[in-house]
Amino acid sequence: MYSIGDLSKKTGVKIPTIRYYEQMGLIAAPDRTEGNQRRYERRELERLSFIRHARDLGLSIEAIRDLVELSQHPEKPCTGADAIATTHLASVRAKIAQLKKLEHELERIVSHCAGHTVGDCYVIRALSDHGLCEGSMDEV
Amino acid sequence: MYSIGDLSKKTGVKIPTIRYYEQMGLIAAPDRTEGNQRRYERRELERLSFIRHARDLGLSIEAIRDLVELSQHPEKPCTGADAIATTHLASVRAKIAQLKKLEHELERIVSHCAGHTVGDCYVIRALSDHGLCEGSMDEV
DNA sequence: CTAATCTCTCTAGCAGCTATAGGTTCAAGA
DNA sequence: TCTTGAACCTATAGCTGCTAGAGAGATTAG
């Protein structure tokens, strides 16, 4: 039997976060002591590690809820789990692509700034004048 | 004179967002009509475009507040603006590096999954068992 | 038994908006 | 001039994924 603090130390998930996950339905409400404190079993330790790991990979609470649900049914086909991971991979890649665009834009802005006052600072001018962008980032 | 709707159309910033920026002190409270509706000048249109552009680059409201402040003082040295952009560039790069790690991990997980049921699904197993990770992402 | 440390619930806060409700004002056409 | 419909107003609540604090009660080591 683990207290919530034990669970927290073992998984690296903070105590309020554990309670939050319970509220969000990622972990079941555990048994309580007579004094109303949560007491966990090994099972819940494992599930929380699962959740932690999935969060580290950037999966949403929503996606994790689905994965947890799936993991409770080992006999079902795993296409659902695969789809969740694949979809997430795609969104991670999209995010990377977007951030690389930002990186290039920022590099360009920063490197071009040879001015010494705000009046001729390329950083400020680039932000003021969208025309200074290479191929605008958005359609506006 | 532009109404808030005009401003919104011209800059692509949604109306509630414009009001939010006013509240946050990014743009000054404009004059009002007798009937209490906001009326903007060209000056504010330009500033909002500036803000939009900076947001597109991922700068925080806080950072933008500083940049806007700086841009009002063309005679000052631009080291502050440069520092904001440089710092942001560093954080974008850090984010990219982190997402690439996630990308690799997810690729590995997805590509290894040859199972057909949840019971032998690599996605689920990889999440359940941290030991399946290549060089763990975190120290837990 | 006591003191120190957990733990409990509830509430509010973070960023950066977005949405809704319920009311007022504006502008264009008849 | 009047009417109607679109646009606007404020205020409040909600979104994600936590985190922090208050104030009270529970547990445990000595």
Task: Compile the SSE list and pairings.
The structure is a homodimer of 140-residue chains.
Chain A: H1 4-11, H2 15-23, E1 31-32, E2 38-39, H3 42-56, H4 61-71, H5 79-112, H6 122-128
Antiparallel strand pairs in A: 1-2
The first copy, chain A, binds a DNA duplex (30 and 30 nucleotides) through α2.
Characterise the protein shown here.
The structure is a homodimer of 140-residue chains. By secondary structure, chain A is mainly alpha-helical. The first copy, chain A, has a domain at 4-76: Multidrug-efflux Transporter Regulator, Chain: A, Domain 2 (Orthogonal Bundle). Chain A contains six helices and two strands; from the N terminus they run H-H-E-E-H-H-H-H. Chain A has a two-stranded antiparallel sheet. The first copy, chain A, binds a DNA duplex (30 and 30 nucleotides) through residues 3-5, 14-17, 19-20, 24, 33-38, 55, 60-62.
